[in-house]
């Protein structure tokens, strides 16, 4: 009798877990489907591309670097080659306690180009946010643009990122990151699909529908006055970009997304590096969720849909453990025969439905992005994305377990973890789509490029 | 058992086939780097014209056809012909299928059709109701009424777009553009873009003694109709937000950046000195000055003789009424609307007018009245 | 800018009678879109409703067909079938048939079957070491195997009939077949420029769903028949709706590959 009662309780708990999982994942599935379709049929994306070149505020470009000798020269050269008016441009190359040849490269560029100012940090708190705090004190621009060292901005990038600031409500902008080293490993290839979905589909559709885009901390920028108003960079945050997004939102500013401002980046090619990156993102995101959810709910100038969207965005990594919970609960239901005797049509429908409908939703966004990008070859890698899906789910669950464990016991969190660079120094910028490589500029500002191999 | 083993093998093969395409694709793509971005891209308003001229320059290096003469030569660029003429003077209803380069002046009659690009080294006059693919002119260009251009027009000299022309892409000039009534283009860019009926009258700007309300922080405590001080919120960074519509009968002086979560209407002789963002519609009263950037998510109307110096951006439609001026030192101004951008007569913009739909020069009763007046004078 | 997908109209302005070149200037990918018109959505909705209704109406016939295919495959696979028992899949629906085949309890399972579990764990370990990306999935499968081994060891007389398995299988798959038209329409029909091709994909996915389900079910029953309940959790997880997701992903990837090529052109590799 006792065993029967225990079984009944177990079945009840398992059903509740499955129901909860189904509910949460259905909400996210609807959100993903909506984002995918909304982007697919979007005829007039919200962009300020027509204003590129007409909005020319004073800008400060910051490039934080820690042991970036492999890539430092490329990013600095690319910034110098941008077509922004030098009288309104300041570049701060931040050498953050590097022990390799980064300092020498920064000094060399600073000596050659007057618009580049070096900032050598030999002490102080480590990590990107702390470096940005120091650099911001030197900044003279109305707008601060950020690029990580492994990025290679195109010539029009600075103008494209500056244009949305014509809208005073825009507190920050975010461009689109495009993985360059896609053939470096299967993981990199799969991550390029994920990035495509995240930017081409999700960011654009959310921005177009009046929700704030997410600032990613690189290939983006922030309005100096807005940054000061919200208290500057937060050195204690692991994801200062997400933190900034929500601090801006809660103070009345928006983040604009510029789909046209595309920039190459390097994605992790090994799973170990990717896992560390995920841990940082998950931890930072969840920290922001705990920090800001009450303020989001209380903000009377945000509409209900905006609040829901903001919370769903912050809670997105929680879907992984919810999904695992659903799997385990459904396994219990499967093996407890008494669960089968009672009609469980609703739960069964949900259980099966969420597996098919909900999990497919994220892949559908990838499909939409690939369809719009024309990335047909890459799309064929999709079945292998199941591996990435499981790998990420495990890593996220692991990261969340550690986060909540630390929250309970008050231990230190994961430190700042830099993504390892794979590009070789002196490789120069990547070739553009026409096989041309950036080589120089003429005195009248016209730009000449030559075909790779015509050295 | 053996049968089941065989079955399992076949089953595994079928199962693997779901991954096979992905695996072979990966093997093919491994080691490659992405080449999908054009890092040398720079946005140029007259890109199409420049790019076409650059390509044409290289094409004209190709050997000419043996049958070419001094007056007319031909280059075959592989599947396409380019005709080079010293001068061109086409009669009405002429139809041309190939690309054409004219070293001198170009003139064609009405109802002509040039189905490929046209490059004119000197001056160009296109007859009424003609149709062009695209046009690049090194001198001045005149498109007579009813001309249709399927793509772009670029002129180094003055570009005169007469009435009811239609340009489906950009119209650019290094000198100036006159935009005739009823004409449409997707965008116009020149040091000066003007509609018909241009007249200068600087005396219209000024407050004329009317009350001016200072916002977001009023200069005094007097009540302002249409303004609720409790809805004004300081966001920080010198920026304010008004949670509601702001429809004022008095002239307004916006001194600090302001976000209006509603509509914004201001009376004549207003002065908008700082950036504004309006989530609803915008109406700027007569003879106002908009010194900074003005962005709206709804429709935008700049009334008669408004002077703007920054960027205008509307997610809806935009209307620039009679006498609007757009001028800024150093950097050209720009006005862009996601909906139609209608421009009335006597508008002069030093910079760009563009729309996701179309920019159109419209005729209003004022124009008729003034033209009648001028006739009687 | 929106790409024009009407194949018979090369002139973007829609004017007829004037031939112009170079009208297929594809907009930059940041401003691309595909025409998801109201008509297209209505067609998708109709197709889904009809297919789903058809599946629901002929549910018994469909399950019977599924059973017949499974029966033939079981014969080919050498799995002895003692008969077919009527099982209740959903209340209100007529009972469907599930095959009766012996599934030994753990106590009756041969030693080699138990060794197979260890071998499977070792293989999963090796795979996860070699391919780092498979680590989590392999780990979870190992977890399921170990749990199953423990449960069976603790309760060696635990039984699970093939009829019950068949019942649960059909229950799950029936729901998949009912949901599939809706998901497939969203994925294959709505963004597809050619409506007929979109409908073809939807129908093909539905038919393939039934066939693939029969194949998987027979494989699962074969494994259970030869090894008992040791692999039950693993095959339920791996061969269940996860496999439905897999084949849907496969077809979706091919569909997007074709659509993208047709709409935006066929370009070289990483530019695509």
Secondary structure blueprint with pairings:
The complex is a heterotrimer of chains A (455), B (377) and C (272).
Chain A: H1 2-40, E1 59-65, H2 72-80, E2 89-96, H3 102-112, E3 116-121, H4 128-138, E4 143-146, H5 157-162, E5 170-179, H6 186-208, E6 220-223, H7 224-229, H8 240-250, E7 254-265, H9 271-298, H10 304-314, H11 319-335, H12 337-341, H13 345-373, H14 376-379, H15 385-409, E8 436-441, E9 447-451
Parallel strand pairs in A: 1-2, 1-4, 2-3, 5-7
Antiparallel strand pairs in A: 4-6, 5-6, 8-9
Helix pairs in contact in A: 1-6, 1-11, 1-13, 2-3, 6-13, 8-9, 9-10, 9-15
Chain B: H1 2-29, H2 47-59, E1 72-76, E2 81-85, E3 88-90, E4 95-96, E5 99-102, E6 106-108, E7 113-114, E8 118-120, E9 124-126, E10 131-132, E11 135-137, E12 141-143, E13 148-149, E14 153-155, E15 159-161, E16 166-173, E17 177-179, E18 184-195, E19 212-215, E20 232-236, E21 239-242, E22 246-247, E23 251-254, E24 258-260, E25 264-266, E26 271-272, E27 276-278, E28 282-284, E29 289-290, E30 294-296, E31 300-302, E32 307-308, E33 311-314, E34 318-320, E35 325-326, E36 333-337, E37 341-343, E38 348-361, H3 365-376
Parallel strand pairs in B: 2-5, 3-6, 4-7, 5-8, 6-9, 7-10, 8-11, 9-12, 10-13, 11-14, 12-15, 13-16, 14-16, 15-17, 16-18, 17-18, 19-23, 21-24, 22-25, 23-26, 24-27, 25-28, 26-29, 27-30, 28-31, 29-32, 30-33, 31-34, 32-35, 33-36, 34-37, 35-38, 36-38, 37-38
Antiparallel strand pairs in B: 1-2, 18-38, 20-21
Chain C: H1 38-57, H2 59-76, E1 83-87, E2 96-100, H3 111-130, H4 135-154, H5 162-189, H6 195-227, H7 232-239, H8 241-264
Antiparallel strand pairs in C: 1-2
Helix pairs in contact in C: 1-5, 2-6, 3-4, 4-7, 5-6, 5-8, 6-7, 6-8, 7-8
Summarize this entry quickly.
The complex is a heterotrimer of chains A (about 450), B (about 375) and C (about 270). Chain A is of the alpha/beta class and about 450 residues long.
């Amino acid at each position: 009798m006792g065993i029967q009662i225990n079984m009944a309780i177990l079945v009840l708990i398992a059903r509740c877990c499955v129901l909860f999982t189904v509910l949460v994942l259905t909400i996210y599935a609807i959100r993903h489907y909506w984002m995918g379709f909304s982007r697919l049929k979007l005829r007039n994306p919200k962009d300020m591309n027509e204003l590129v070149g007409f909005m020319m505020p004073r800008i400060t470009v910051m490039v934080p670097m820690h042991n970036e000798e492999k890539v430092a020269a490329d990013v600095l050269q690319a910034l110098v080659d941008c077509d922004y008016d030098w009288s309104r441009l300041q570049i701060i190359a931040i050498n953050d306690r590097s022990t390799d040849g980064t300092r020498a490269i920064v000094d060399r560029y600073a000596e050659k180009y007057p618009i580049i100012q070096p900032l050598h940090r030999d002490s102080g708190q480590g990590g990107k946010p702390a470096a940005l705090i120091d650099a911001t004190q030197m900044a003279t621009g109305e707008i601060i643009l950020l690029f990580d060292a492994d990025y290679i901005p195109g010539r029009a990038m600075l103008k494209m990122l500056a244009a949305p600031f014509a809208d005073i409500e825009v507190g920050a902008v975010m461009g689109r990151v495009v993985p360059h080293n896609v053939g470096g490993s299967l993981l990199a290839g799969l991550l390029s699909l994920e990035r495509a979905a995240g930017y081409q589909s999700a960011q654009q559709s959310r921005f177009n529908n009046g929700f704030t885009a997410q600032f990613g901390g690189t290939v983006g920028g922030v309005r100096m006055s807005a940054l000061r108003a919200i208290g500057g960079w937060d050195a204690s945050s692991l994801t200062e970009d997400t933190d900034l997004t929500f601090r801006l939102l809660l103070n009345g500013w928006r983040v604009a997304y510029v789909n046209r401002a595309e920039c190459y980046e390097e994605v992790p090619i090994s799973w170990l590096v990717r896992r560390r990156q995920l841990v940082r993102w998950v931890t930072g995101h969840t920290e922001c969720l705990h920090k800001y959810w009450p303020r989001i709910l209380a903000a009377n100038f945000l509409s209900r849909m905006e609040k829901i969207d903001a919370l769903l965005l912050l809670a997105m990594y929680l879907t992984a453990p919810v999904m695992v919970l659903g799997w385990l609960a459904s396994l219990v239901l499967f093996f407890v025969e008494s669960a089968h005797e009672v009609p469980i049509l609703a739960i069964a429908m949900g259980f099966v439905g969420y597996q098919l409908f909900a999990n497919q939703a994220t892949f559908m966004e990838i499909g939409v992005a690939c369809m719009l990008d024309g990335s047909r070859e890459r799309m064929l890698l999709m079945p292998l994305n199941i591996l990435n899906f499981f790998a990420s789910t495990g890593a996220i669950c692991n990261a969340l377990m550690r986060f909540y464990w630390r929250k309970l016991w008050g231990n230190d969190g994961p430190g700042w973890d830099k993504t390892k660079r794979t590009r070789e120094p002196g490789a120069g910028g990547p070739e553009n789509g026409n096989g041309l490589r950036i080589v120089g500029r003429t005195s009248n500002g016209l730009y000449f490029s030559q075909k790779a191999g015509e050295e | 058992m053996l049968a089941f083993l065989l079955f399992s093998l076949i089953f595994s093969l079928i199962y693997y086939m779901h991954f096979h395409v992905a695996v072979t694709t990966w093997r093919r793509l491994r080691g490659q780097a992405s080449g999908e971005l054009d890092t040398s891209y720079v946005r140029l308003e007259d890109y199409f014209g420049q790019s076409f001229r650059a390509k044409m320059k290289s094409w004209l290096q190709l050997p000419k056809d043996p049958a070419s003469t001094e007056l007319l030569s031909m280059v075959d660029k592989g599947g396409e012909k380019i005709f080079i003429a010293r001068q061109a003077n086409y009669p009405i209803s002429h139809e041309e299928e190939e690309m054409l380069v004219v070293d001198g002046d170009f003139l064609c009659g009405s109802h002509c059709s040039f189905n490929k690009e046209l490059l004119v080294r000197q001056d160009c006059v296109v007859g009424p109701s003609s149709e062009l693919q695209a046009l690049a002119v090194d001198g001045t260009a005149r498109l007579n009424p009813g001309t249709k251009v399927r793509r772009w027009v670029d002129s180094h000299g003055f570009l005169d777009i007469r009435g009811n022309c239609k340009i489906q892409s950009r119209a650019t000039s290094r000198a100036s553009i006159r935009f005739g009534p009823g004409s449409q283009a997707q965008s116009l860019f020149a040091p000066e873009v003007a509609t018909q009926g241009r007249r200068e009258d600087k005396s219209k700007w000024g407050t004329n003694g009317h009350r001016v309300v200072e916002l977001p922080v009023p200069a005094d405590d007097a009540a302002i109709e249409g303004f609720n001080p409790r809805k004004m919120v300081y966001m920080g960074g010198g920026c304010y937000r008004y949670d509601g519509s702001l429809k004022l009968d008095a002239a307004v002086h916006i001194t600090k950046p302001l976000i209006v979560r509603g509509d914004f209407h201001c009376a004549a002789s207003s002065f908008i000195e700082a950036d504004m963002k309006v989530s609803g519609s915008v109406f700027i009263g007569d003879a106002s000055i908009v010194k900074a950037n003005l962005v709206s998510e709804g429709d935008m109307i700049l009334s008669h003789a408004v002077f703007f110096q920054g960027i205008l951006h509307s997610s809806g439609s935009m209307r620039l009424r009679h006498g609007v001026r757009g001028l800024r030192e150093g950097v050209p101004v720009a006005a862009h609307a996601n909906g139609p951008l209608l421009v009335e007569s006597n508008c002069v913009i030093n910079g760009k007018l563009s729309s996701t739909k179309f920019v159109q020069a419209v005729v209003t009763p004022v124009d008729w009245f003034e033209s009648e007046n001028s006739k009687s004078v | 800018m929106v790409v024009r997908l009407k194949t018979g109209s090369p002139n973007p302005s829609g004017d007829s009678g004037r031939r112009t070149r170079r009208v297929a200037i594809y907009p930059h990918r940041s401003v691309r879109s595909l025409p998801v018109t109201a008509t297209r959505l209505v067609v998708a909705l109709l197709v889904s409703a009809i297919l789903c209704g058809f599946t629901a109406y002929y549910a018994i016939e469909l399950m019977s067909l599924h059973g017949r295919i499974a029966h033939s495959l079981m014969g080919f696979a050498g799995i002895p079938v003692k008969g077919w028992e009527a099982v209740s899949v959903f209340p209100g629906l007529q009972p469907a048939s599930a095959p009766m085949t012996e599934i030994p309890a753990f106590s009756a399972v041969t030693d080699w079957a138990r060794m197979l579990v260890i071998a499977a764990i070792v293989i999963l370990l090796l795979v996860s070491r070699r391919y780092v990306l498979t680590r989590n999935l392999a780990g979870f499968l190992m977890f399921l195997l170990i749990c199953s081994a423990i449960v069976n060891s603790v309760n060696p007389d635990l039984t699970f009939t093939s009829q019950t398995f068949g019942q649960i299988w059909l229950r799950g798959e029936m729901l998949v077949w009912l949901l599939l038209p809706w998901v497939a329409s969203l994925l294959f029909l709505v963004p597809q420029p050619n409506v007929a091709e979109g409908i073809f994909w939807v129908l093909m996915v539905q038919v393939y769903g039934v066939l693939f389900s029969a194949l998987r079910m027979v494989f699962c029953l074969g494994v259970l028949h030869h090894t008992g309940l040791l692999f039950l959790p693993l095959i339920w997880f791996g061969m269940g709706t996860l496999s439905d997701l897999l084949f849907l992903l496969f077809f979706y990837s091919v569909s997007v590959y074709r659509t993208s090529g047709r709409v935006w052109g066929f370009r070289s590799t990483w530019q695509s």
